[in-house]
Amino acid sequence: MLRLPRFEYRAPLELGEAAALLAEHGPAAAVVAGGTDLFPNMKRRQQEPQLVIGLRGIAALRAIEPTAEGMRIGATASLHQVANHPLIARRYPALAAAAGLVSTPHLRRMGTVGGNLCLDTRCTYYDQTYHWRKSIDFCKKKDGDICWVAPGSPRCWAVSSSDTAPVAVALRAQLHLTSARGERRVEAGAFFRDDGILYLNRRPDEILTHVELPPLDGWRMTYEKLRRRGSFDFPILGVAAAAKLDADGLVEDVRLVLGAVGSAPVDQSALAQPLVGHKPSREAIDDVAAAAYKGARPLDNTDLHYAWRKKMARVYVARALDTVCMVHRESA
Ligand SMILES: Cc1cc2nc3c(=O)[nH]c(=O)nc-3n(C[C@H](O)[C@H](O)[C@H](O)COP(=O)(O)OP(=O)(O)OC[C@H]3O[C@@H](n4cnc5c(N)ncnc54)[C@H](O)[C@@H]3O)c2cc1C
Ligand code: SF4
Questions:
Q1: By alpha-carbon position, which residue is closest to atom 36 of ligand 1?
Q2: How far is the CA of 275 from the centre of ligand 1 (A)?
Q3: What pTM value is reported for the model?
Q4: Are 39 and 48 in contact (CB under 8 A)?
């Protein structure tokens, strides 16, 4: 049985107290929300904080409420709440769907939207027990010097495997962070970094407090997830697509973001721009899907064969764009 290492646990009831603790202890401390990622990682000694600061007692971080223009979701709102909230389901169905596709019902009740956005990147050579990792002399991401996926590479290629991250990027969500030094706001697209180790644009003393969703104003949006088992696996590909059609059915704007194909969600909206100004057609969507296929570069460090996952990027992008552009194909 894997055991947690010894650590001190604090459960402040005020955000200011949590921020002060983080400021005092720096990288030796970590915050925990649902613990469904952090605690298994601590059992495998991937993360070894001496102080763990629980956020769930802080009422201010839990609220889900409409704003004048959009919605505000507290970082410790559970994935279950996000998936089942009637207003989120109506205004942001892709986010509700992504939250509802994470893991299992049990983990969605414990896991939070903030923890999902801050989820550690994943890799076959990293998500292993301490002894397994030790037997290969560890790797760059923790305790070692080499990358086993790309031994000549100066960087780590661990994969962003969050279901809500690509949706947050496609929604242009604003993420609010608080520290003892003050508050700041980052657009989701700038929050995720293409680096398997430093994968967030978040300082160790910062707490994600809430996610602000701008109004969707006529956008249609979807999230498609590929995984081995439909019942509970991490995504090995996630596609968030959004489109806005005008009254004549012409595409006014379109967004396309791929998850689980790199260390950060990959915004491929530029590849979808040829759809703009036209009535969407199967052929045009297939061209975008072919371009997305070329741009997707999954590596051999997660589930199933990377070449197959790359092929599936084409299929899933076409499927997602069909949905948001309301293109119907004859079944073969
Ligand atoms: C079997 C299994 C299957 C899973 N399947 C999926 C899946 O399909 N899709 C998926 O996306 N995830 C999956 N997960 C991962 C995880 O359950 C979810 O991502 C969950 O949303 C994490 O939220 P949490 O609140 O439990 O995070 P925690 O474990 O509490 O935290 C995760 C990380 O985020 C940091 N953090 C948490 N909250 C904040 C905050 N407010 N501010 C700053 N940092 C913060 C923590 O320090 C930690 O580094 C799975 C996990 C397991 C064990
Ligand atoms: S990509 Fe390389 S450095 Fe990063 S976790 Fe995997 S093996 Fe380690």
A1: 115
A2: 35
A3: 0.97
A4: no
